[in-house]
Amino acid sequence: MGSPRLRFALVAVFVCACGSRETAPSAQSTETPTSAAPASATPTSETPTAETPTSETPTSETRSAPSVDGHTALRSCEVGYVHPFTPTRAHLRASRAALRLHRQEAFAEAATAFRALSESAPTYGSARFNLACAALRAGDAETARREIGRLLCEDLPTNLPRALADEDLAPIRAEIARLGEMLIERYEAASENGARLVAFGVTADEDPEASLHWTQAGFWTGERFVPASPRRQGRAAPRRQGPPLYASVIHEGQVVEVHSIVSWAEMAFLPRFEVKLLERFRGRELFTRHVNREQSDFIALRVGFEDARPFLTYLPYNEAPSRTEWAETGARAAPVAKPQIGIGPSTWIPVSNDELVARGRTLRDGDRRIRLDRRHRRDVRITRIDHWAVVHSSSTGDCGFPDRYFTEVIDLRRGTAVWGEGGEGQRLFHVEQGKLWMQDLERLVWFPDPGAPARRELPTGFGISSAFESFNSMC
Question: Cα–Cα distance between 408 and 393 in angstroms, integer?
């Protein structure tokens, strides 16, 4: 798009356990975070030495405090979150200072630091998770249970596998597993009529190379985002490659994810990637497969489900035939007509499976021909909802020139346009749960009536895709 791009070494970073390095994972609440961490989060002379061990280290009796009734936790549980949280640099500094205390086994001091950070930024899930770990190690089981219970309510797919694997939380692991299973039904009910969207953002570190790009798949209920799979995050890659690309498809009780890297090479082909299948809401991986097609002529990938099995279809750069295979094994499969998403070297978007076709500036609806506006660009994408056809076209600007788009909504009953708009930038349209959605680089909106341009905006940080813009890779 003409703006310079940073090119860094890829470091795929996922949510880490207590006492390890900071990764800014999710788990959000409805409260709005502040922009700075408190001074008390920075370690001072209270940091213990080897000669002065802390007296707060719990005994086995204090770490095995009586269990909290899971039904009590459920009564105050509101599933999901409203605003995606991305930590500031000050949050990261304070969290790393507290983690150093935890690694030194100064658990009471670490808990104090994490508590101060959590009070400063109540939606900072990493701080609250680590507060639970440090508090339990310091003998405060009540705080640990309270924080873990809240985190499971807000982001079960991320925090349940993490909590079950963390040794700091081993004394309450059975309780966590029981509460997680009790919450599955709550998550299912909350997401029943939700629109499949993604939450995403960038954690900007003091060192730009350490900035983390994150994405999470889930459902928007109209009021809250219900996570369906764990929050994924990673750093940018070197030379002609950019930030990580996390694409996802939610299908019934499963989520298939493709983890790749944005490629900014002039002649870009599909980079190597991982494909994962997970249990929806539980976040448990069913399989992971590494795929490397870099030396082939495939430039794009389509992903979906057929008979409850995820498949991959590779699209060639030239006139070579496409290839369809089962995601888990790589075994060849018959071509599938209706994939759910398409992935390119730098983008991923939902795939439109509508039968409407635009040739030149003419829309074909069966035997009918409908004339389109002259302002349409080269690349045309058609989205159909009821008797409306949303015809959207765009062109990628060269170095120093902006992208352009034009959108026209056609009433198929009359064969006439009812409204249109265009300008600089790019837009992505998609129909989900009977609503027409539009995403640009700053916001996501939906249209109560596709036949009118009035729209309603979602909170910042949600989208149809976490990487939908294309650009001139040489700029």
Answer: 9
343 within 8 A of 258, measured Cβ to Cβ: yes
- Write down the residue that tokens 């007509």 correspond to: 337
Reported residue count of the chain is 475
- pLDDT of 407 over the 80 cut: yes
Question: 10 Å Cβ neighbour count for 218?
Answer: 30
Question: Residue 121: which pLDDT band, with cuts at 50, 70 and 90?
Answer: very high
Beta strands in 292-402 (DSSP E): 298-306, 309-316, 323-326, 341-343, 348-350, 357-359, 362-365, 368-371, 379-385, 388-395
46 CA to centre of own chain: 38
Helix (H, G, I), strand (E, B) or coil at 6: coil
pLDDT at 401 (0 to 100): 76
Mean pLDDT (whole number) for 130-143: 97
CB-based contact 197:464 (threshold 8 Å) = yes
Which of 86, 153, 171 has its CA nearest to residue 126?
A: 86
DSSP string, 407-463: EEEEETTTTEEEEEEEEES--EEEEETTEEEEE-SS-EEEES-TTS---EEPPTTEE
Task: Supply the angle between the helices 89-103 and 125-137 in degrees, to the nearest 10.
Answer: 20
What is the C-alpha to C-alpha distance for residues 235 and 7, in angstroms, rounded to an integer?
10
- In this prediction, residues 223-230 reach a mean pLDDT of 97
Phi, psi of 64 (to 5 degrees): -115, 40
Backbone angles phi, psi at 288, to 5 degrees: -135, 135
Residue 348's contacts (CB-CB under 8 Å, 6 or more residues apart) are 245, 247, 258, 341, 342, 465, 466, 467, 468
